[in-house]
Amino acid sequence: MNVINKILIIIIALLHLYFLWLEMFAWTTKAKKVFRSLPEDLFEKTKVLAANQGLYNGFLAAGLLWSLFIYDKNWSNHIALFFMCCVTVAGIYGWYSTKSKKIFYVQALPAILGIIIVLFT
User: Could you give phi then psi for residue 39, rounded to 5 degrees?
Assistant: First the structure.
């Protein structure tokens, strides 16, 4: 795995760690500023759902970071591809279900770039 792809994986993983924090620990405070389209009264009501979603984002970050510590190049690439595909699917579904292009650009596009780099280097 080349340096550019490792940097991209770290960026994607950090984004998902941020999502984890936001959804698990700051849902009723900081998340209100990020998810401005949601009515304010929903944050307390959806706190448990958001925390569960945050946990899944943490699993994505863990998998991406794990791929960086695997010494076998093929195995490392396969693990990275799997988790970047998961991130891509989540980003495309988020874009489709919310009609927000921002989700696609923030979540899916970096993962798609990472997949392309892994497949063609």
Answer: -65, 140
Structure tokens at 111: 């993962």
Would the pLDDT of 1 be above 80? no
d(CA 29, CA 108): 26
CA distances in angstroms from 18 to 1, 30, 45, 54, 120, listed in the order given: 24, 11, 21, 9, 29
Rounded CA gap, 43 and 55, in Å? 17
CA distances to 2, 88, 95, 113, 121 from 105, in Å:
23, 10, 9, 11, 23
Question: CA–CA separation, 89 vs 82, rounded Å?
Answer: 11
pLDDT score, position 37: 84
Helix and strand totals (H; E) in the chain? 7, 0
- The domain locations on the chain are 3-120
pLDDT for res 121:
81
- CA separation (Å) from 1 to 16, 46, 63, 115, 118? 21, 39, 15, 11, 7
